[in-house]
Amino acid sequence: MASISSLGVGSGLDLSGLLDQLRSAEREKLQPIVTQQSDEKAKISAFGRLQTALDGFQDAVAKLNDASLYSSLSTSVQGEGVMATAGADASPGRYEVSVTQSARGGSLATSRIDDINLEDPLTDAGAQLTLTFGDGSTMPIDLAADSTLGDIRDTINATPDTGVTASIINDGTGNRLVLASSETGEAAAITDMTFTGLSVGATLAKDADTLRAGRDAELEINGIAITSPSNRVEGAIQGITLDLDDSASGQTSTVVVERDSDSLREAVTGFVSAYNEMKSTVGRMTAVTGDADTAGELVGDRTVRTIQTRLSRDLGESVLGGELELMSQVGISLTPNGRLELDQAKLDEAIAGNPQGVAGFFAGDSEAAGMAGRLSGTLEQVLGDSGMLKRSIESSETRIDNLGDRYARTERSIESTIDRYRTQFGQLDSMLAQMNSMSDYLTQQFSALDAQLGRK
C-alpha cells in the first residue's frame, strides 16, 4: 500500500489534500472542548478576583467587629517635655501636668590616678569593692589580684545586678573610674564606693566632689504632687503613661485624652468603600452585553448570586437588641443599584451623640453579634477553606481536568478516523491504479487490432 507521501500517485487524484481537509474537519470537534476549557479558566480567574475583593471587604468588616475600636482613646499634649499614651483602661479627661524636675541617675568617680599606667596592677589577693546606694543597700564585688583599672571596670560590668555601669575617663591629667547608676531615681543612685585590699602604694578612692546625686521626678497633676523614680510615670493617671524628658523640668503641659473618633470614622468609611469596590468587581463579572466576547465571566453564576443575596440580607436586616438597629441610623444607606452610600454628617452625629449605640450596632456584645459579626459569619462561609467560593473554584478545576481527558479521547478518535480514511484512500488509489493500467492495456490491444484490420 502506498504511504501518505505517495498517496494519489496511482490514481492521479489529490488524495493527500483530501485527507488533510478531512483531518481539519474532524478536528473541528475539538473546538467546543477548547472553548469550554477557556471558559472555565476565565471563571477561575474571575473567582480569584472576586476573592481578592471579598478579602478586602472581610478585613474592613473585621475592623468594625473589633470591640477595641470603640473604646480606643487618643491623647494629645499641649506643651513641651511630656509625652502621653492612653491604655485600654484609660478614661477621657483633661489633665494639667507641671514638672518640677525630671528623674535622673546618680554617678560617682574615683580620685584621679596620676603617674600610673592603665596596665599597672592595683589590687592584692582578696581585694574588694563595696558599692552603696541611695536606699542604703550595698553591693560587694570581689576583685582579682593584680587587677588594673581596666580590669576593675570590666569586673564591675561583668557582675550581674550591680546597679551601675563602669567606665574610665581621662580628664587630661589622669584617669578616673566612673560609676553611673543603671536606673534613675534617688533610691537607685550610687552614693559611695570603698576599696579594700589594694596593693601597697596604690591609691583608689571616691572623689566626693564628683558625686552627682540621683533624683526622683517631681510633678503635679491637676495640683496633686507626684514623685516617680523614673521618667516614665505610670498609674498616676489611670490608664495613662507619661514620659518626661530633660526639657520637662519647669514646664507645664496639658494632656487631653478623648475618644478616638477618627479611627472609628475611618473604619466605617473603609467598610463602605470596600463593599462598593466588591460590588464593582461583581458588576464587571456579571455584565450582560449581548456579546459573548465582552460579557462578564460569571454571568448567571449561582455562587455569585448566592453571595450577593446573603450579603444584601445581612446589610438590610435589623440589628436587634441595641439602641441602633438600622444602617440608616449611622448614616449608611443601600442605594437602588446595590451600593452603599455614607452620610458623613449623620455618622459623626451618631458617634458624638451615641457612641455606645454605634458600638452595639456594628460589634454588639460578642464576635457574632452586631451587623459586623453577622457579616463576618457569612464571609467565613464564603471565603473559608470549605467555603462556597473555594468549592466553585475546585468544581471548575475538576471540569477542566475532565475536559482535558475528553479532549485527549476525542483527539485519539480523530486520529483513528484519519487512519481509517488513509487506509481506504490507499485501497482506492491501488484499485484506480489497476483500473488505469487495465484501461491502458485494453487501449493498446484495441489499437493493435485496429491496425491489423486496416492492413487487411
TrEMBL record:
**What sequence ranges are listed for the domain Flagellar hook-associated protein 2 C-terminal?**
214-437
Q: What is its main location?
A: secreted
Segments forming domain Flagellar hook-associated protein 2 N-terminal: 11-104
GO CC terms, sorted? bacterial-type flagellum filament cap; bacterial-type flagellum hook; extracellular region
Q: State its location(s).
A: Secreted; Bacterial flagellum
Task: State the superkingdom.
Answer: Bacteria
Record-level GO BP terms: bacterial-type flagellum-dependent cell motility; cell adhesion
Q: Which InterPro entries match?
A: Flagellin_hook_IN_motif, FliD, FliD_C, FliD_N
**Protein keywords:** Bacterial flagellum, Cell projection, Cilium, Coiled coil, Flagellum, Secreted
Q: Name one Pfam family in it.
A: FliD_C
Role noted for this protein? Required for morphogenesis and for the elongation of the flagellar filament by facilitating polymerization of the flagellin monomers at the tip of growing filament. Forms a capping structure, which prevents flagellin subunits (transported through the central channel of the flagellum) from leaking out without polymerization at the distal end.
Q: How does it assemble?
A: Homopentamer.
Family designation = Belongs to the FliD family.
Would you tell me the protein name for this molecule? Answer: Flagellar hook-associated protein 2
Q: Which source organism?
A: Halomonas urumqiensis
